[in-house]
Amino acid sequence: MGYRVVDADAVDPAPDRPCECRKLSEPGGLDHAAINRFRAEPGEQLPLAYHYHETQQEAFYVLSGTLAVETPGETYEVGTDELFVVDPESPQRAYNPADANGSVTVLAVGAPPAADDAVAYDPADE
């Protein structure tokens, strides 16, 4: 048996991200899922780009604030204590709108952990 407690605030934010991203998978010893905590100020997005994953399913659980998720069909508003799920090959861009009243904090879970399967998506190509 094994157990770990990870203080997310003790994990250094990942560099080169458009918002604060604390990658919790490695400190948690997780091999089969990726877990990140994002905190985005108004006007900041969570991912590096509008994208989709070839094999990874993603779930965004909003801890506080309201998350906007742009998809080819519509933009969703995901409030506190709501979960937004993205299936593989489904383009999305999650962000905190520029006119938001404050930050949004999100716990993002992806499985399988597939850092190298993200594919950039350009809606203009449709």
Automatic annotation (TrEMBL):
Residues 38-104 form the Cupin type-2 domain. InterPro entries: Cupin_2 (IPR013096), RmlC-like_jellyroll (IPR014710), RmlC_Cupin_sf (IPR011051). This is Cupin domain-containing protein. It comes from the Archaea. It holds the Pfam family Cupin_2.
